[in-house]
Write a structure and sequence with these properties.
The complex is a heterodimer of chains A (about 210) and B (about 375). Chain A is of the alpha/beta class and about 210 residues long. Helix content of chain A is about 30%, strand content about 30%. In chain A, strands 2-3-1-4-11-5 form a six-stranded mixed sheet. Chain A has a five-stranded mixed sheet with strand order 8-7-9-6-10. In chain B, about 35% of the residues lie in helices and about 20% in strands. Chain B is built from twelve helices and 14 strands. The chains are: A alpha/beta (about 210), B alpha/beta (about 375).
């Protein structure tokens, strides 16, 4: 029997994804136990789950260590892995936005300083507007950059907008809507075609209550 | 002892591929490692990666380490009666997004250039399948015809930007993105539905072709499909039917490629090991008439293919010291070699060497 290796993003999104997989018949009791294991297998169902850092899911799938995985569209746009993007799970919805101080007005006469965790997305967006920008790559606490004058705006994920609001910032432009996607390694898709297709079909039939 | 045991996967594959191509009348083509940079600038988007290693030659000319073999063959091939059938085995230098730097990639492959007919095209695709077969019987060869997708896109009259977006979504088998394009009014509904159907199709020709024929495709697509069907028939005659898969998500740059296109895969290797197709458009860009089809096998990928973990480095470690003459050591080594063992002669045990047995001449009575 073929075993599907599934990379799940560590954290809240990954747990939600697992609940979806479980509800469509891909449960794995071992994963629900409290322990420090990293790999969980259900041989009866032919699946093996493992948790990885969300931004690494695409790499595991692209390199074939995982046959399929779930990653946010933000990660896929930023790293552009060579994988199949088979389904939109419709969960983990948020927006990739440009945000700035409430009183910020873009001076088109100067180079725009953009702080972000997503340099590729920022660069692609601003080059589609032919805007000259200076990218400042940060790894966290992006919101602080405009407050301290490090940047003019930020490009970041906005879920509810509360963090922005509490820091005197607001979303200025929406770049792209984000949600969790099911991705598959291109070669696995060929050699484990039936198993992967069955899983995709089952997941697509699932309608999240919150959507 | 079987000498082939000492060969690495890729070296063994090269032997078999050379033999395969020679038997079908393809001639070897050896070229220089360098090429004028100019050749690649003019055809940059034909290349897999757009980074090229360059250097200045002694006469001041800007040169490049070959990132690709096909362009060099096309440039140097002379026209004339009949087809030009050549094969090569070369190293190329290119980057890949996953590797963060230049890598040397060992390639073997062949090209068939001239007035192509159904037989010539079929022969090249058959040789691609046999190349994979010589490495593993479990291979899969994905086959497509660019004209099928191109026909649908042409009938939809899209802008260049919309066309690119649709092709990108096709390449990812991204049905949600195709639907999104349709909702945004950037792809007509009929085209979006047909592309989605095509993206989701994957299977052996016998399974997929009947489904394709039920689709109400534009005339240009239907003609491409007929060509694909005829090719599948011919490949079936070669006995290759069950390792073939039709997959319309293979979308190469249509400025260069046209018609039949294919990719080869081996189980357990995370990316493709063979890529090829028909590139009449590139030939035309270079001012030549006729057609061209070819493929490359990425031999460097085989390095990790079914390689057993490193075991013993040598059967017998032969230890000696000054009490032995060179002639005595040689005689002892020869005796072991004659018995089919591998031997390493040393004065002391080298660090890190794994050996099955040791023969210590230092302790043996004279």
């Amino acid at each position: 029997m073929t075993v599907l290796n599934i990379a799940l993003p560590k954290g809240r999104l990954g747990e939600k994804v697992y609940r979806i997989f479980k509800s469509v018949g891909y449960d794995c009791p071992a994963i629900e136990e409290e322990n420090r294991k990293l790999v969980f297998e259900n041989p009866e169902k032919g699946i093996r789950y493992f948790w990885v850092k969300p931004s690494d899911v695409a790499i595991y799938v692209e390199r074939g260590a995982a046959d399929i995985g779930v990653a946010g569209k933000d990660i896929l746009l930023e790293y552009a892995p060579d994988v199949y993007e088979l389904a939109d799970l419709g969960i983990g919805r948020c927006r990739m936005c440009v945000a700035g101080k409430k009183d910020f007005r873009d001076d088109l006469d100067t180079t725009l300083r953009v702080a972000t965790k997503f340099p590729r997305i920022a660069r692609t967006y601003y080059s589609s507007l032919s805007r000259d920008i200076d990218i400042i790559k940060l790894n966290g606490s992006i919101e602080i950059a405009p407050l301290l004058g490090l940047s003019d705006v930020i490009v970041d994920i906005v879920e509810t907008g509360r963090t922005l609001l509490e820091n005197g910032l607001e979303p200025k432009e929406e770049i792209v809507p984000i949600s969790a996607r099911l991705v598959a390694n291109k070669v696995s898709y060929k050699f484990k075609n039936d198993a992967i297709r069955q899983l995709v079909e089952a997941v697509e039939r699932f309608q999240p209550e919150e959507a | 002892m079987d000498a082939e045991l000492f060969l690495k996967n890729e070296e063994r594959a090269v032997f078999r591929l050379r033999e395969l191509y020679r038997r079908h009348g393809y001639l070897p083509y050896k070229m220089s490692k360098f090429e004028e940079y100019d050749l690649y600038v003019r055809n940059k988007s034909f290349l897999v990666s757009d980074h090229i290693l360059t250097f200045t030659d002694v006469d001041g000319k800007l040169m490049a380490l070959k990132p690709d073999v096909t362009l060099s063959i096309l440039k140097n091939c002379q026209g004339g009666p009949g087809l030009q059938k050549v094969y090569y085995h070369e190293n190329v230098y290119r980057t890949s997004p996953a590797s963060h730097g230049y890598r040397e990639i060992m390639q073997a492959g062949l090209e068939c250039i001239g007035t192509l007919d159904d037989y010539a095209v079929g022969e090249v695709v058959m040789l691609a399948a046999r190349s994979l077969e010589s490495i593993s019987g479990q291979y899969l060869l994905d086959l497509s015809h660019l004209g099928v997708v191109a026909g649908i896109l042409a009938a939809a009259a899209l802008t260049e930007e919309e066309r690119q977006a649709a092709l990108t979504a096709m390449g990812q088998k991204n049905a949600p993105a195709l639907r999104q394009l349709c909702r945004e009014g950037r792809l007509p509904q009929g085209a979006a539905r047909q592309l989605e159907q095509l993206a989701n199709l994957y299977g052996p020709p016998a399974e997929v072709l009947p489904l394709l024929e039920q689709m109400d495709l534009p005339a240009a697509s239907a003609q491409a499909l007929a060509e694909l069907k005829a090719l599948c028939g011919l490949l079936g005659q070669y006995g290759l039917g069950d390792r073939l898969r039709l997959d319309f998500s293979i979308v190469n740059d249509m400025n260069y490629y046209s018609g039949i296109i294919f990719r080869g895969y081996l189980p357990g290797l995370a990316s493709g090991v063979l890529a090829g197709g028909r590139y009449d458009n590139l030939l035309r860009k270079m001012g030549r008439e006729g057609g061209a089809i070819g493929f490359a096998v990425y031999l460097d990928q085989l390095e990790r293919y079914n390689t057993p973990p490193r075991g013993c480095d040598v059967d017998v470690l032969l230890l000696y010291d000054d009490s032995r003459t060179a002639g005595e050591v040689a005689a002892a080594a020869n005796a072991l070699l004659a018995a089919g063992r591998t031997v390493r002669a040393e004065r002391e045990v080298p660090a890190g060497l794994q050996y099955r047995a040791v023969r210590d001449m230092r302790k043996e009575a004279r």
